[in-house]
Amino acid sequence: MIKGLGIDLTEISRVGELASKHPQFLDRVLTTAEQKQYHGFTGQRALEYLAGRWSLKESFAKAWGTGIGKAVGFQDVEILDSRLGKPVVTRSPFAGRVHASVSHTGSLVMTEIILETD
């Protein structure tokens, strides 16, 4: 049974600007494991990863029904790429299954999170 659905659309350049202006941005948005993956990328791909994690966590909070920062924060959700590149939610406050999807254009990232229980 679907318990929640969240989608988000984010401008990649906006997230890049935030990261450039605020040195603590990476620590605020990415978990330690996500930062390790992020540092494995360079250039546009690194920005896509960062914007993707921001957007995925926003989608999760929307699916959770609260929005980010209210009942769930950026550090409460961890989403790592599988070795094939699929985003996998490895930590969250939700006890059921969490399905994640991310798609990029040159300037946008679109994400979706589905929360599911038996």
Automatic annotation (TrEMBL):
EC number, as in UniProt: 2.7.8.7
Subcellular location: Cytoplasm
GO BP annotations listed: fatty acid biosynthetic process
GO cellular component: cytoplasm
Cofactor: Mg(2+)
Gene Ontology MF terms: holo-[acyl-carrier-protein] synthase activity; magnesium ion binding
Stretches assigned to the 4'-phosphopantetheinyl transferase domain: 4-102
Reaction catalysed by this enzyme: apo-[ACP] + CoA = holo-[ACP] + adenosine 3',5'-bisphosphate + H(+)
Keywords: Cytoplasm, Fatty acid biosynthesis, Fatty acid metabolism, Lipid biosynthesis, Lipid metabolism, Magnesium, Metal-binding, Transferase
Residues involved in Mg(2+) binding: 8, 58
Cited Pfam families: ACPS
Chain's role: Transfers the 4'-phosphopantetheine moiety from coenzyme A to a Ser of acyl-carrier-protein.
NCBIfam families from the UniProt entry: acpS, pantethn_trn
Family: Belongs to the P-Pant transferase superfamily. AcpS family.
Name the record gives this protein: Holo-[acyl-carrier-protein] synthase
Organism: Limosilactobacillus oris DSM 4864
Gene name in the database record: acpS
